[in-house]
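Bug #77: duplicate submission created two jobs. Keeping one. Sequence:
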Amino acid sequence: MNIVVDIFRSFYLSAVNYLPSFFYGFLILVVGFLLAGLAKELFIGLVKFFKVSFFFKATNIAKEKEVTIWADVLGELLKWVVVILFLVPTMQLWGLSGMTTILTASRRSRSESP
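Kept job's structure:
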């Protein structure tokens, strides 16, 4: 009976000790998603402000609708890049070093290539 109590006690203490890391990681992730959404909207707003679609339409490179679609696609891509940038410290804080290695592997392989 004493062994069962010790197992539950160690589980409880481990869970309680992990909670601050979990909440800080969750906070970092929420901030990352908020900033990612802001970055996306800012990018799309800048494309509209500088009238990039007018430039492409005037030079017959692309139609205005195509530029709008590409602005949305690039904005979404920017959003997920920012999310991944915030996901790396979250995974480190949560102790998921394997995920951190996967998320940073592509960055290392690009910097090592000639």
